[in-house]
Recover the amino acids of this structure.
């Protein structure tokens, strides 16, 4: 009986591995793997990239993948080339299918267990052990450690920034979720789509409760969302802004409103003029990481979209490592379609309507359709993941 259950479990994991890895980009052969980096309570994998021209006191950038996305796919979203050019280290925590059938980081806990959200526990402790491993292995600057994440990786980045604020100087979150959005299993899906509105004070208290003893400055945040994302609701961008502006003790009236092409940027400064939080909204893009193939930034693959905006380069610009392509081209104001258009609700999800569009169908026609890679698969995959997680949980318990 035990052998049969083990066979079923292995069969499920093998099938899922074939689906997930089959969607990825060509494997990034320059990545190195580390297995003995610590006790690894979250049972995560670890890969990293150290360029040959590694500078002394080099920065370290953590990059966390999304669901159904390989490390190779997100590494090729501009990160590897930029690390080679600028001489900084990349660290890629990697989820295992045994932990989550869709390869998602468990930002909402596991089977009702919220230990992953608690400092020094589960997956966040595993990631911290990776950081300490890299610090011992390579000459990096401990004051220049940054984190970036997409989708479930963005939600996990929120956890790392809340539970380990003294470690990170800044973060960049793409299609992410607020820290501690889901405190109960049934809240996970509403947190993703359409998002949950709790108010700045409540959001901020959840961050502060993650490390009550901390009295230092919290990391700066660059927050990103695609306006046509059918998987992660656009509402999450404003909720993240509310959470982190409140944590920083600054108001939510933007000090700068900027635009460049499809990008709309709002910046929020503290009293000394330092940008503590900024938000980027990319028009006409679905669920994926923005890249700009024309400028040599990234390769389109699973949830990596050529939008003409390079997320990796702009995130590094915010970190102070790289000069972003758009940061010299930004002008006051917002994209014209956002100024002339109105907003409507589609199943509770805010979507920006193109001028003259009277319905979602006309919106799709005006924009040339949803540009998300595999958005239908991602939506159905969320439900499949919940079913498979329950099946695996039952098998583990028996």
């Amino acid at each position: 009986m035990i052998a049969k259950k083990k066979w079923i479990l292995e069969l499920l994991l093998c099938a899922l591995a074939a689906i997930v890895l089959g969607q990825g980009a060509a494997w990034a052969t320059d990545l190195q793997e580390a297995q003995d980096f610590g006790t690894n309570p979250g049972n995560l994998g670890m890969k990293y990239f150290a360029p040959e021209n590694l500078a002394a006191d080099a920065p370290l950038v953590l990059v966390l993948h999304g669901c159904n996305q390989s490390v190779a796919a997100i590494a090729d979203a501009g990160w590897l080339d930029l690390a080679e050019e600028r001489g900084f280290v990349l660290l890629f925590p990697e989820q295992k299918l045994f932990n989550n059938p869709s390869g998602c980081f468990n930002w909402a806990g596991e089977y009702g267990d919220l230990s992953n959200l608690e400092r020094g526990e589960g997956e966040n402790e595993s990631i911290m052990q990776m950081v300490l491993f890299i610090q011992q292995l390579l000459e990096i600057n401990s004051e220049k450690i940054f984190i970036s994440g997409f989708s479930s990786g963005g939600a996990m980045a929120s956890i790392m920034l809340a539970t380990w604020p003294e470690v990170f100087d800044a973060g960049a979150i793409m299609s992410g979720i607020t820290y501690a959005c889901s405190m109960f299993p049934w809240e996970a899906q509403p947190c993703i789509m359409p998002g949950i509105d709790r108010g700045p004070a409540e959001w901020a208290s959840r961050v502060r409760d993650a490390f009550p003893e901390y009295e230092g400055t919290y990391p700066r945040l660059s927050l990103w969302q695609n306006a046509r994302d059918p998987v992660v609701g656009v509402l999450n961008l404003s909720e993240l802004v509310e959470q982190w502006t409140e944590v920083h003790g600054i108001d939510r009236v933007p000090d700068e409103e900027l635009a460049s092409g499809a990008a709309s940027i709002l910046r929020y400064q503290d009293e000394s003029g330092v940008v503590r939080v900024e938000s980027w909204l990319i028009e006409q893009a679905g669920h994926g990481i923005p890249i700009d193939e024309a400028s040599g930034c990234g390769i389109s693959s699973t949830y990596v979209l050529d939008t003409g905006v390079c997320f990796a380069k702009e995130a590094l610009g915010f970190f102070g490592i790289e000069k972003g392509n758009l940061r010299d081209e930004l002008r006051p104001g917002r994209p014209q379609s956002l100024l002339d258009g109105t907003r409507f609700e589609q199943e509770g999800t805010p979507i920006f309507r193109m001028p003259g569009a009277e319905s979602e169908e006309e919106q799709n026609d005006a924009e040339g359709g949803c540009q998300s890679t595999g958005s239908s698969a991602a939506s159905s995959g969320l439900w499949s993941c919940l079913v498979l997680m329950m099946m695996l949980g039952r098998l583990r318990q028996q």
In short: Confidence is low (pLDDT under 50) at residues 2-27, 335-398.
